[in-house]
Amino acid sequence: MFKSFSWKKNRLVSTLVAFSLALLIAGMSPAIASSLTLGQLMPIPNAGNGSALPAGVERRGNLEAVPIRLDGQELFRIASPAVFNRNDPGNQIPVEIRAKQIEDNLQRLVQGNPSAGEPALDPESLQVLIDDVNGQPVLFVRDAKLAEARVILTVTDSDAQYNGTSKQRLALQWQQTLQQELQRAIRGRQPEVLQQQIYLVGKVLVAAVLLTVLLGTAWSFLERQRKRLKQQVMAEAAAIRNQEMTTVAATDDEIGFLAGVRRRHLGLAQRQQLVALAQWLLFWLIVLLWVGAIAFSLSAFPQTRFFARRVAAIPFVILLAWFFTGLTNRLIDLMIDRFMQSQEKEKVLTEASLQRVSTIAKVVKSLKTALIYALVFLWVLQWLNLVPASILTLGAVVALVVSFGVQSLVKDFVNGFLILLEDQFRIGDNIKVNEFSGMVENLNLRITQLRSDDGNLITLPNSLITHVENRSRGWARADFRIEVAYDTDVDRALAIVKETIETMAQDPQWKDQIFNTHELFGVDQLSHTGIGIRVWIRTAPLQQWNVARELRRRIQIAFQKNKIQIGMPQQLIHDHGVLKKEGVEPTPNSDEQ
Prior knowledge:
This protein has 593 residues and is α+β, with helices and mostly antiparallel strands. It has helices spanning 9-36, 95-111, 157-163, 167-188, 191-246, 252-299, 305-312, 314-346, 351-383, 391-405, 407-422, 490-506, 544-561; strands spanning 58-60, 63-70, 73-81, 127-133, 136-142, 150-154, 430-433, 436-443, 447-451, 457-461, 468-470, 476-484, 514-527, 530-539, 570-575, 578-583, 589-592. The protein folds into 4 domains: 44-189, no CATH class; 224-405, no CATH class; 421-470, SH3 type barrels; 476-592, Alpha-Beta Plaits (2-Layer Sandwich).
């Protein structure tokens, strides 16, 4: 059944990788935080480094505190005098060792030790009591199954000082907490309770599977709609390109038709983005559904409740941050597209201004995406307590890397910004950069992508763009050259060429693409190959090639009709005293600019 859901592999893989990284961060965050809060990178293990605090230990003045947990839940915090050199603590007991002993005592009370003949406690008869031993309150446990009381912990002066109360009052607070939590933990391990939890978890997982099937079906339906809209958008884009190539200097009717095509194109593109947004929301709904189902399943059992809290805390927050970041990013994209569509409908901007705004909007989208994800990434680091003291050290390392290894990247961004600011070229322009030329398909702060005449996609870092020939601004020129035979009547040949050009300029199909035919016209060269005639024709942008091709066709017909020969390279050959002339007929030539 799931084969019918054409899931996008890259989305699934990226989400699984992100979830795995989140789990990894959840497991390693205490260790990372303890080292980064000292303003340093993860240290290499060193026997002489005894001043670093272990994971989870908090130092406050001359006291160190650590939480006591049962089944992953924090009960309270204990404290001990600070140990400044853990490699040589002397007579002091580090607080983390004391906490480990207390947690081991609680685990033995909850789970029992059948191999040693120690049964689990009875939750109904269990009592946590307080006794005074050598002036220190001691908490211990009694129940109907225990032959003698078992000590849990001793309330010390450091505990009272850290919690800001007296030892006796603190002992009473801890007594109530331990009484409730021990009974809850023991009841949760009873066989009948475990059976109920297994049944409940089974129902939750079945419901998750059914919801996944339902949401997956909706996702597949939207995928088909998205592909259909994508084909329509591509078809409309091709129609716009073709129309622009033939109606650059168009009539009012043609301009109105082109504007209608563009409005339909923007509408289809917006619908495509809305469908993609709905798909994205469904995908994330499935992800969050399974994160919640797994977290609930783990929290149902005391043995796995500790992992459930990690699944439901750090990874869940990271995924939730990722979700809202992507949602914000897509909503801003929709707002930008809606603004572009409103400008197109209201005809506030000219064609050139609209093209420039469209190019800048595309760059703003990519830059905005990078900024949003960077800000959320820093927020997550701060939420994990990985930023405050370490940001200077990490910033210095990043600055060092940038100064040595990313200089070209900085140049790309600076040059890309200048290209946009100075409006050197836009998406849709035909440009030439060094030996590369083609139509600009993509432009951002780092790269420019051209589509060459051969259909190849050329990617240029913006730092390499120092000289640009833009063939799409204002007007273009067809530099047309042709040679006629040397013995041709030159005035007659010039008249035929001029008449052919003027006839073409008056043709309704071509008159809107030819602006001026009088810039340059005449004999440009005399040589052994013939008489060179050169003509400059000013045309609409990107129309110089079309005009030159049509002009070649018309001149060939006119020359053939008037018996005018094309110029040929000639040479004289003496064959036993007989003079022979040989030649090879060339083809007309033109250079378009």
